[in-house]
Structures are given as C-alpha cells and as structure tokens.
Design a protein that fits this description.
Blueprint (H helix, E strand, L loop, with lengths): L41 E7 L6 E6 L10 E2 L3 E5 L5 E8 L2 E8 L10 E5 L5 E3 L11 E5 L2 E5 L15 E5 L4 E3 L2 E3 L3 E3 L12 H5 L6 E7 L2 E6 L5 E5 L4 E6 L5 E8 L2 E6 L5 E11 L11 E11 L11 E4 L5 E8 L11 E11 L4 H4 L5 E14 L5 E11 L1
Length: 398
Amino acid sequence: MPRKRRTEAPPRGGKKRKPEKAAAIPHQIARTGSCDTEPPLVYLVVGHDVTRPAYSIVKVNPFFPRRRAPVPIPGHLARLESKHCMSFVAVRSRHGPWIVGVGGNAPIDYGPETIVFDTRTHQVIPGPKLLSTKFRPILLPVGEKIYALTRDPAIKGEINFVPWFEVLDLSQARVVSGRLVDCKWEQLPRPPCFPWELSPRHYIFPPVVWVRSFAAVSSCILVSTDEQKGTHMFNLETEQWAKLDDKDLPFTGGAAPHGPLFLGFSTAAKKITAYKITVCAADSPSPSITAGCPSLSIVEFPMVDEAGEEVVSNGKFVSLGNHGFCSFRCRTDDLVLGTLEHTRELVTMRTYGTEDLSQDHLKSIRHVVISNQLEQVYSVRDSLRGLSWPSLVDVISL
C-alpha cells in the first residue's frame, strides 16, 4: 500500500476580524501586535534588451499611499552588466544584505553568470562562473549558501546541461579589486527525478522535464516535477537525494518563507495560499519511497479577505514577514506591442496586510485573514535601452 502524506487539519476556532482601512505608515499595515520591527525593503529587478546594462535595480516602498494615476518608478540604484535570463535571490552574508543574480542564456562569455549587488554600498560585484550555463535557474538561499538547480534539464547541448545542481558558499568570500574571490560553484548530486540512464532511442528524443514546485525547508530542499509524480528531498547535511512522498507539492513554482509559514500559488485553488510545511521523523515507507526517509506534513491555510477584494492569483509576489506580502503584475504601455521597441510598462504593486502569524496563533486559526490592501501603479520607461517583456524579472525583499 502506498504511504499517505501526513496531512494535519488546523484546529477549529478563531474569531473573525473586520477589515481595517488602509494604513499610511508601515507598522500599521498588519496586526502583528508589534510596532518595533521594521518591514523589509523591496527591490525590483528590471530587465533591458541590451547587455550594458542587462538589468537595473530599483527600490520601492510597499506602503506608499495610492495615487490616482501611475507614478514614475523611482530612480535606479545600480545597472548590472551581465548575461540575460538570470534569476535573482536575496542573501544575508557576513558582508551584509546582497542581491545575487545567477544564470545565463548562452555559453559564450558576453557577461558574468554570477553578479552581486550590495544593498548597503550599492556596489556591483562580478562573481564566479557556473559549471554549466543555466537558463533562469531555481535559486534557493540557505544561510550563506546559494543552491542553483536547473529548471529544465537538458540531455544534450550547452545550456541546462550537466551539472544540473550546484552550490556557491559565500561564507569565506571576499571582494578584491571589485570582484568576488575565495568562492566557487561546486557540483552536487543530480536529482533522481531528472532523466539520465536513457536508451539510444530516448537519447535521440529525450523526455522533457520541468521542475513544477520547490521549497527550502529547514535542512532540506523539496522538489516536484511534471514528469514524475511525487516529492523528492535533498538533505543539505548529507548532500543526498531521496524520495520523500508519493504526492506532489500542493503549489506551483516556489514557496517563499513567510514567518512560520510558506506562501505559494495553490495548484488546486489557483491563488496564493499559506502552508505550514514540516519534515517529520522517519516513517514506514512505501516501496517507492527511500527507506528511512522522513515523512512530509503540510497544513494549508487559505487566504480570506472579508472585504471581498481580490486576492492575488498570478504574477510575482514577495513576503514582508509579519507585515504581510506584496504582489506585482505587469502590462504593456506601448501603443502596439510587437511593432515598436518595448520602452514603456505599467507595474501594479499591491500590498496585503495579514493578521498575526506567530506559532501560538496558528493553533487557533483555519485561515489567514487579509486585514487590508494598498495599491500603487508604477510607470516604467526607458527609451534608450528598451525593456524586456515583461520587464519585471524578479522581486526581492531584504
């Protein structure tokens, strides 16, 4: 008999809260019970159609009061000259809060495949080259390490080829003469859900695999693909893969840490949902699950908005910790997209305040209540360099 995932139901109870009016100052956006902690800063990575620069870094205020008309996006903090088709992630190293870009769209060296933006000094720092070029890789920061996983593994070719899984340890990294030294990308074992031992016929027409969902939980990385049903786990301590569960992760894309929970787009509900994800003690496995492997417990907390306003169902989102979360959507502002160079775009930023999400409070709720929403529309324009479509490549909170 296949082992069933241990799924817990949140306890009944918890009082309903009435929606509040949109707040004007940061600590009032969410009912966290604490006004001492400052909300994280939010940075936008804007993509260009040129290589010098390939990206711009912009800082926005998620608690800015709504304006009737779109407002110009704030001035850029830095221009990044690097490869296109990167992914970006926030890393808190001993050097301070960094935004790190990793990846590329071609094996030729027309720009660095690792680039760092120091949010304190605004310095742009080229880093080490990947062992294999990765097109918009999945990036999972754990402490001072960045794990880079190929999103779409290739059996042959020069992009997304082996190694499919790498790690960059920044604990001993230094900046010398404007470059990142004393660190390098190192190969890790490939996920067993990626195709490898293929017959000659399968090699000619290899299977297409796509990483459907992923998350870094405690001391492990969880992955589900669209080719092979189930959840695989990479143990960060032993650096070994194992089959953890017969079911896929219940969300699409990455799950972002959000206090004691994770935020992700629910595969079933088609909108953003909160999850409590726990890797439990070892259980009796089914034949398809690695012996001695822990079991997976996932508790789902749907988002509820008592004011009847829309809860984000697509686009990009970023957690603001106990202050809530932000969603971002793009739409073109060009006259006819496709006939002119893409130079204008509108980015809608919506901030959602949430109720208290402490561990004690989670014991008495069934849903995560959205207390209020703020919205701001930014106008992104760059006629000199042009914009990629969509121009909003990534959103980072630090």
